[in-house]
Structures are given as C-alpha cells and as structure tokens.
Specification:
The protein is α/β, with parallel strands linked by helices. Helices cover 35% and strands 21% of the residues. Helix 4 (115-127) crosses helix 5 and helix 5 (131-144) crosses helix 7 (163-175). It is globular and about 70 Å long. The protein starts with 12 loop residues before the first strand and ends with a strand. Adenosine-5'-diphosphate binds at residues 22, 24, 29, 31, 49, 51-57, 285. Adenosine-5'-diphosphate is lined by residues 22, 24, 29, 31, 49, 51-57, 285.
C-alpha cells in the first residue's frame, strides 16, 4: 500500500499540523496538537484512541464545527483551504462535499418531521431542488442504505426506527447530496454487536460504490480492522503511529498501540478474560508535556534503563520512521521486535 502522505494522487483530504486549543477557566486545553494526515478518494482512514484522545475534536475541526476553539494549521479539501473560511462557505461545503455521522442519530434527526422530509429538505437546502425531485432522491437514498420498503418508510418518524435503522437514515441523509468525504464519529458505538457489523458493512459498501474518502473515528480497534485501509493512532491529541491496517495488527510499533491491541478480546481463546485496559489514565491536556505523553503508562519506558526512561520523560518523540509506517516513540518495535 502506498504511503498516502508522500505518493499517489492528490489526497481528497489533507490535514497538516492541525492544532485545536480550548481556552477554559482552568487554562488552555490543547485537545489536538500538531496532527497531520491524508485521506485519498476511495480510502478509509481509521482514527483510533482512548476516550479523550482528541478524535471528536479532530473531526469537528475538519468540518469547521469547532465552537469557541482556536484552530490553527491546515485542512485542505480537494486542495482548498478550509481553516479560516467564512462560515457561509463552510456551510455550503458541509453536506455537499463533506458529511458527518455521529454516534447518536436521534440528536441529529428532528422528531416532528418524517425521515423522508428531512432527507429531502437537506437536499433542497443545498441544491434548491424541486420538492418532488428531492423526495424521490430521499427514497433512493433510503433504498441505497438498505431500508426495507423505502417509499413507505420515508413517511415514518425517527422514533419509529430501531437504532440501527436510524443510523441507516443518518447515512442516507449524509449521502443524498453526494459528498466526497464522509466522517463517521463512533457511528456504531451505541449499537449491539450484530447491528454494528451490519452498519460497518454498509459504510464499507457505500465507500466502495461511491469511491468516498472516509474517516472512521472509533475507540475500538475491532471497528478499524473491519473498515479501515489505513490507521492513525492518537494519544493525548497527537498521532503516535500511522500504518496500513494489516501492518498495524501484525506488527504494532508504538507501545500504546500494542497496549490497545492487547486489550482486545482474543477470538482464538475462549477462556480469555475480560478486556485488559491499559493501566493508568490519559494525560492532562492542560499542562504542556515535555517528554512523551505516554511515558508514565509505558511498559517499554518502565522496562528501560534509567537513561532511557529519562529520555522518554524529557524528550518529545517526533512522528518519524519508515515511509508509510511512522511512529512517535524513542524505542519502537519494528516487525514485532521490541527495541
Ligand atoms: P475523543 O477522542 O473521546 O473523541 P474529544 O475529541 O471529544 O475526545 O476530546 C478531547 C479532549 O478535548 C478532551 O480532554 C475533552 O475534555 C477536551 N474538550 C473537548 N471539547 C472541549 C471544549 N469545548 N472545551 C474544553 N475542552 C474540550
Ligand atoms: Mg469522541
């Protein structure tokens, strides 16, 4: 797989040195700190990390939906800079060229309008389409996402759908304006396992059918394994590792990634116990970290010599390494060999 940040066609989405800071009463919260990644058309980038690692803030910043935050760096969609774009222009791009789905579809669906009306209205708002045309497109979109009897179900209200069917409705809404970029923020977290698998399958299918660029945000490496081509692992608002999905699972380089993988339930071992979460807690984003943010929880740092530990605590590791497989660690593992 090519290194998408250095070769291949111009990526649809290109994020460089994205930093998002929230001024709060307790101080500046640096939620995202110097993040860079690319997503080409027809590819899915999985962004994975524990709760609080900055995944949602990243996705909202890409969409230009940050409230009260200071956003710096660059977000380019098809070559066009989005950071600093006036709200009116961002609003035009949202929906038409990029769309987002969330964990909780009910929060984005209006309870008093039928789903068909809402999808049609979304299209009309962006394209000024005629009512009959928009309505037909809404039914087509519902059919595309696998809602049975789409013509009839278009006349139903959100509460008349199950959680999984509501997420399908959200995907239909996102797709009706034919965006090129879809950002999905924990779209299956609230669903039970079987429905989760169906929604992931649906996202993978529409991604292929439409050649979409997809950013799949999740705390669950199992989700990444199902849909992502490439993976970005986040910790404390920074990227700690980027890899093609098979490489990440076969040979994780960063101790944090290895910890995430170790906390996955083992399918090949029926006696495997409950999830082993990584001990310790995520870093405070209020104080600037001088060394590696993961050092206090890192088994590699703990097992190192005093000099190695001191380096991890004092010197912030940059995201560097082999093309397509950069890692931000002073002592990464390569191909399973721990240095
Ligand atoms: P996650 O990876 O779980 O999606 P988020 O991106 O939601 O994490 O949050 C990253 C960090 O940014 C968290 O520590 C969160 O508390 C902080 N944060 C998010 N939104 C705000 C805000 N509006 N004001 C202050 N801090 C925020
Ligand atoms: Mg989140």
């Amino acid at each position: 797989m090519p290194d998408t940040t250095t070769s291949g066609p111009e990526p649809l989405l290109s994020v460089r040195d994205l930093t998002v800071v929230f001024p709060t009463r307790r101080g500046a919260v640096r939620a995202v700190d110097g993040l860079s990644f690319d997503v080409p058309r027809g590819r899915t980038l999985g962004i994975v990390g524990e709760s609080g690692s900055g995944k949602s803030v990243t996705s909202l910043a890409v969409m230009g939906l940050h409230t009260g935050a200071e956003v710096t760096g660059s977000v380019r969609l098809d070559g066009r800079e989005l950071v600093g774009l006036p709200e009116r222009e961002l609003n035009r791009l949202r929906g038409r060229r990029m769309a987002m789905i969330f964990q909780d579809p009910l929060s984005s669906l209006h309870p008093y309008y039928t789903v068909g009306e809402q999808i049609a209205e979304h299209h009309r708002a962006h394209f000024g389409s005629r009512r009959a045309v928009a309505r037909r497109l809404a039914v087509d979109a519902l059919a595309e996402v696998g809602i049975p009897e789409p013509r009839r179900r278009a006349g139903a209200y959100p509460h008349q759908f199950s959680g999984g069917m509501r997420q399908r409705v959200m995907i239909a809404t996102a797709l009706v304006c034919e965006p090129e970029l879809l950002i999905a923020d924990e779209p299956t977290t609230a669903l039970d396992v079987t429905v989760q698998a169906q929604i992931l399958e649906l996202i993978a299918r529409v991604q292929q059918d439409r050649g979409l660029a997809v950013v799949m945000i999740t705390h669950d490496l199992g989700v990444v394994a199902r849909v992502a081509h490439e993976v970005l692992v986040m910790y404390g608002g920074r990227a700690v590792e980027r890899a093609p999905v098979d490489g990440l699972f076969r040979a994780p380089s960063h101790p944090y990634t290895r910890g995430l993988l170790d906390s996955l339930p083992r399918l090949d071992d029926p006696d495997d116990g409950p999830m082993r979460a990584i001990p310790g807690s995520p870093p405070s984003l209020l104080e600037p970290v001088s060394g590696c943010a993961f050092a206090p929880r890192c088994p590699r740092a703990a097992a190192g010599t005093a000099a190695e530990r001191a380096r991890c605590e004092a010197e912030r590791p940059a995201l560097t390494g082999p093309a397509g497989r950069p890692v931000a660690c002073h002592f990464p593992a390569y191909e399973g060999v721990v240095s």
